[in-house]
């Protein structure tokens, strides 16, 4: 009997599509598997499918502790991608946690710039303070310091700036202008970098 695997994975993000490709590649070699795929952010629809579709296991990207707890209560074999930090102290039986090496992401970004001869570095973190963003900064800053360089860090936006990006953009412009020439800037996530790129394209 083929395994019925529920996949809950938003696919609007390029990285998530790569994860899905990896799952499918594994299934081709180790299947056959049947998939029930929930894309987008409709997590509730995926939770309902665990009962309705009779799944034998699941692979899910979870964002909220309650979502994770629901899946664990099903007592099915499962893979949880980037589970909430507060809920990962104890790994239940037949469950695997897959977490990003956030410090490693930061170090990789630093090495990319160092290999290209940059000697000045800056970091723009998540719009809202987040542990994963801080860990990326730590990895980036540590790797840069190993080669004797410092990292300029952009202060996160205020509550007022979070409501109106145009206000934050003015402060950001001043910060960028004050950086040394040819500074390599690492943004904590792609969406943050795209926001700035689109703003300057219109400016």
Task: Characterize the structure shown.
- With 203 residues, the chain is of the alpha/beta class.
- Helices cover 48% and strands 18% of the residues.
- The chain contains eight helices and eight strands, in the order E-H-E-H-E-H-E-E-H-E-H-E-H-H-E-H.
- The chain has helices at 14-30, 43-52, 65-73, 102-115, 131-146, 159-163, 165-178, 190-202; strands at 3-8, 33-38, 57-61, 78-81, 95-98, 121-124, 151-153, 184-187.
- Strands 2-1-3-4-5 form a five-stranded parallel beta sheet, with helices on both faces. Strands 7-6-8 form a three-stranded parallel beta sheet.
- Helix 4 (102-115) packs parallel to helix 5 (131-146).
- The radius of gyration is 20 Å and the shape is elongated.
- The relative contact order is 0.10.
Average pLDDT number: 83
Report, as a whole number of angstroms, the end-to-end distance. Answer: 59 Å
Largest sheet: 5 strands, parallel
Give the helix proportion (percent range).
40-55%
* H/I helix tally: 8
SSE run: EHEHEHEEHEHEHHEH
Task: Describe what is shown at a glance.
The protein has 8 helices and 8 strands. The protein is of the alpha/beta class.
Q: How are the SSEs ordered, and which strands pair?
A:
Blueprint lengths: L2 E6 L5 H17 L2 E6 L4 H10 L4 E5 L3 H9 L4 E4 L13 E4 L3 H14 L5 E4 L6 H16 L4 E3 L5 H5 L1 H14 L5 E4 L2 H13 L1
Parallel strand pairs: 1-2, 1-3, 3-4, 4-5, 6-7, 6-8
């Amino acid at each position: 009997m083929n395994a019925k695997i529920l996949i809950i994975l938003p696919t609007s993000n390029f990285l998530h599509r790569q994860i899905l490709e990896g799952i499918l590649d594994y299934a081709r070699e180790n299947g056959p598997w049947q998939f029930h795929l929930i894309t987008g952010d409709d997590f509730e629809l995926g939770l309902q499918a665990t009962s309705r579709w009779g799944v034998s296991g699941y692979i899910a990207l979870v964002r909220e502790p309650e979502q994770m707890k629901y899946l664990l209560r099903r007592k099915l074999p499962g893979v949880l991608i980037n589970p909430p930090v507060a809920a990962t102290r104890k790994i239940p039986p037949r469950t695997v946690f897959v977490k990003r090496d956030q410090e490693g992401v930061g170090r990789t970004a630093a090495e990319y710039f160092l290999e290209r001869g940059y000697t000045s570095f800056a970091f723009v973190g998540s719009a809202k303070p987040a542990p994963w963003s801080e860990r990326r900064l730590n990895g980036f800053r540590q790797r840069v310091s190993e080669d004797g360089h410092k990292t300029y860090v952009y202060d996160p936006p205020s509550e007022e700036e979070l409501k109106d990006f145009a206000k934050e953009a003015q402060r950001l412009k001043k910060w960028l202008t004050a950086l040394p020439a040819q500074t390599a800037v690492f943004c904590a996530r792609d969406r943050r970098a795209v926001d700035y790129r689109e703003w300057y394209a219109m400016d």
